[in-house]
TrEMBL record:
SUPFAM superfamilies hit by this protein: PLP-dependent transferases
Keyword check for Transferase: yes
Keyword hit for Repeat: no
UniProt organism field: Corynebacterium meitnerae
Gene3D superfamilies in UniProt: Aspartate Aminotransferase, domain 1, Type I PLP-dependent aspartate aminotransferase-like (Major domain)
Gene Ontology molecular-function annotations: transaminase activity
Protein name as it appears in the record: Aminotransferase class V-fold PLP-dependent enzyme
Length: 406
């Protein structure tokens, strides 16, 4: 089973405009299958499906209810396949900040005066700001400023009996560093009964998520980051966890969710499951998804290696978290994303030169972590993120333009 990138590119009609898109971290291209599904879902959402001719244990029981209810149910099942869970453990919402805010509000009965909540510098600032609204002590983990990685050992000091919630990302969206989620979860389990919440949004476009392998309590996914509609989901380890929550805030989180958008969730998961031919014999969507994402991961890993190798050969190019002596011992596990700058050349100039040559990237968004790593001192940086449709020719084009500046 081989990854046929030419066939995959045909699934994205937006690629016909001539641009080379290397901005999957910021604005993933939307597959034609998803846009068509959303259009169809908006038409069908307010309509009422015809009653089934026969009744039975599997027949529809929501007579007279709009089709939008079925679209939301299908979206939960699709997310369940995406992360290896069951649909009854999934809460949908318009965005992860909204869902995180609802989770913090719903956990209020568990918080005491001396409770603590641990956040990570690799988390997106908007998620950290949302979690910091909890009326508890906020503790912050520290990242390695040379590599951008999140050392697991520090959680032995941060986590104790007062800890109620630990939030961390599965990967950094701009640096591409991957977090040792399972290692951190093991430490937390040894020291407290706190819930571990993992933001898998940056990780999900490249690897198949195995909920049980991480051992986390809650996984958050922004489906827009994998080319789907602007919908997010929280997936809980067990539906019994809802009994420990004030569930109303979680239900309120989904009030702003358009059923028409939900119709695109199944489409994007089906898209990811069909990037390579299906395994022989009858197979579930989860089985197809695992096989497809394995091939995608292998393909993009090779492009990532070329990207890091060739950019890293230029002395004037500095890749945050990968260049320098401090990064010599960095983990090799990284997403096909990186953030780089060219010595003596402002980041805006690099960005504009790339854009003039038909390459779409983004200027790195300053965060406390990137600032501490020297983003401002190097004159800013440009972030590159690969998608399922990128080719080796795209990497070569990027290298040629950067070489003209370096």
């Amino acid at each position: 089973m081989a990854y046929d990138v030419a066939s995959v590119r045909g699934l994205y009609t937006s690629l016909s405009d001539g641009w080379t898109y290397l901005n999957a971290h910021d604005c993933p291209q939307i597959p034609e299958r998803v846009s068509a599904a959303v259009s169809r879902s908006f038409r069908l959402a307010p309509s009422v499906p015809a009653p089934e001719g026969r009744t039975g244990t599997h027949s529809r029981q929501s007579l007279g209810r709009p089709e939008g209810d079925n679209l939301l149910a299908s979206a939960r099942h699709a997310v369940a396949d995406l992360v290896g869970a069951s649909a009854d453990r999934i809460v949908l919402g318009p965005s992860l900040p909204v869902l995180y805010a609802a989770l913090v509000a719903a956990m209020a009965p568990q918080f005491r005066q001396d409770s603590s909540l641990i956040v990570s510098p690799l988390d997106r600032p908007e998620l950290t700001a949302t979690l910091s609204t909890a009326n508890v002590q906020i503790r912050t983990a520290h990242a390695d400023l040379g590599t951008g990685e999140l050392p697991a050992w520090q959680y032995k000091e941060l986590v104790d009996g007062t800890s109620r919630l630990i939030a961390l990302p599965a990967a950094h969206p701009q640096l591409g560093t991957v977090t040792d989620v399972a290692g951190i979860v093991d430490i937390v389990r040894d020291r407290s009964r706190a819930w571990v919440v993992v933001d898998a949004s940056a990780y999900a476009p490249y690897y198949c998520i195995d909920f049980d392998a991480w051992g986390a309590d809650v996984i958050g996914v922004d489906l827009g980051q994998i080319g789907g509609p602007q919908i997010a989901a929280l997936v809980f380890r067990d539906s019994a966890m809802f009994k420990r929550l004030s569930i109303d805030p979680l239900r309120l989180a989904g009030l702003g969710l358009a059923p028409g958008l939900a119709g695109g969730v199944s489409a994007v998961v089906d898209h990811l499951a069909s990037l390579v031919p299906a395994p022989e014999g009858r197979s579930t969507r989860r089985t197809r998804l695992v096989a497809s994402m394995d091939e995608l991961s292998s393909y993009l890993r090779s492009l990532r290696d070329d990207l890091y190798t060739f950019l890293g050969t230029w002395p004037a190019v500095h890749i945050l978290g990968a260049t320098g002596e401090a990064a010599a011992e960095a983990s090799t596990e990284r997403l096909p994303r990186l953030t780089f700058g060219v010595q003596g050349v402002p980041a805006a100039t690099v960005y504009e030169r790339l854009f003039d040559n038909g390459i779409v990237t983004t200027l790195a968004t300053p965060t406390p972590l990137l600032t501490d790593m020297g983003l401002e001192e190097m004159g800013g940086a440009v972030t590159v993120g690969l998608g399922p449709f990128n080719t080796y020719a795209d990497i070569e084009q990027l290298i040629r333009v950067v070489a003209s500046l370096a």
